[in-house]
Amino acid sequence: MGKKLVYFMDNFYPNVDGVVKVVNNYGKILSKDNDCTVVVPDYRDNYQGKHEYRLLRKSSHLFKFHDFIFPLPKRCKETDKFLKEHKADIYHAHSPFFVGHYALRQAKKNHVPIVATFHSQFKRDFLEQTHSRLITFFLMRYVMKFFNKCDEVWAVSNATANTLRSYGYKKEIFVARNGTAFTYPDNMDELKEKVRVQYNIDTNKTNIAFVGQIRLVKNLKLIIDTINLLSKERDDFHFYFVGEGNDEKKLKKYVHKLGLDNVITFVGRLYGGDMMQGFFANTDLMFFPSVYDNSSIAVQEACVCRVPTLFTEGSNTSEGYTDCVTGYLAKETPEAMKEKLVYILDHDEERKQVGLRASKEMPHTWEEVIYEAAKRYDDVIKNYQERHKK
Question: Could you tell me the residue ranges of all domains in the chain?
Fold first, then answer.
């Protein structure tokens, strides 16, 4: 057996977001040669599921602040005892909030090095929800206190690392990119037909989709405003929102208000990789204008399925993509996005070639990125031991 690795996060299945997918894949892949434990709160339910790694549910209170819901870990002798006796080689935290600070305390207490991954644009989140610079200041101080106390901080892209530096982080940042478990299936035509029938998809039209959490912070109103402009000029396309989230009702009302019910469809969450692959097979373009996301796993999944993506120019998720080569870029306005969509709709063969190039050049498998990241654990452990020599 290799190392003893312990991961900490404040969300977990059956709730699904990008961070859940990241931690699940780290645990699944590294547990082949290591002893992996994932520590998560139990505040939602007692879901366990089947995992290749050890899953510990820590007793927690539910703390709500504006639209944020934080699990506040309660004193849990069982978890504390496990962490003390387990003698882990390294901790890896994926939350800078209460669970992350709990991991920090346990790391100090048990003399274990700790790394943390920076996933989200917290300052934007806080300002968006509180509308208060003062509250945001104190929340960011709490978040940055966490990152500054970790032995090393990771980011999912160079642009994301720059975002963290803009918050005042001064130390070195290691870039550990996200990956995808998707491969192009041999039975793609079969999956395509199954999903086409189930969702009544018109393949004679250009089908455009957003895949992810249905949250306004992801620029989804911009999508609707863009589609509204486009629908006034042509009717040879259809748009799909795939996913679920807190703002779904608000967005449906907005779609109805604009009279776009026949142009925009809310699909909901798709369960299982086969269904998602089948949906991508019916999709001609991914529209992902979010400037909030740091790295989108859904975009990589689209790439694997040869579906190109339209990004906001300069966004973190667009890092590495070249306009009209491996993806499409436009300024963050409905007018600019609409003009780019018109171009894409009028250049169908180019769109197919962009999707094909993206599939070859842009995705990374989870095995690639995780095994590379695991090598970094060795450096963190070595540096920690050097600093703490008696």
Answer: 4-179+366-387, 188-361
188-361: same fold as 4-179+366-387?
Answer: yes
User: In this structure, which CATH number among 3.40.50.300, 3.40.50.150, 3.30.110.10, 3.40.50.2000 belongs to the domain 188-361?
Assistant: 3.40.50.2000
* Dist CA 149 CA 106 (whole Å): 13
Q: What's the rounded Cα separation, in Å, for the pair 47 and 57?
A: 9
Residue 127, pLDDT score? 85
Enter the pTM of the model: 0.84
Tokens 């035509």 sit on residue:
189
Residue stretches of the chain with pLDDT short of 70: 1, 43-48, 60-74, 390
- Give one word for 121, left, alpha or beta, with left for phi > 0 and alpha for psi -120 to 50: beta
**Residue 232: how many other CB atoms lie within 10 Å:** 9
Which pLDDT value is given to residue 57?
84
pLDDT of residue 1: 62
C-alpha distance from residue 280 to each of 120, 207, 328, 376 (Å): 26, 10, 17, 34
Integer-rounded Cα Rg, in Å, for the chain is: 22
Which superfamily is assigned to 4-179+366-387 in CATH?
A: Glycogen Phosphorylase B; (3.40.50.2000)
Query: Contact at 8 Å (CB) between 90 and 128?
Result: no
Q: Distance between CA atoms of 179 and 324, rounded to whole angstroms?
A: 23
Instruction: Show the tokens assigned to 231.
Output: 């629908």
What was the pLDDT predicted at 304? Answer: 95
Rounded to whole angstroms, the Cα distance separating 71 from 22 reads 19
What is the predicted pLDDT for the residue at 66? 52
Name every residue whose Cβ is closer than 8 Å to that of residue 389 and which is 6 or more positions away in sequence. none
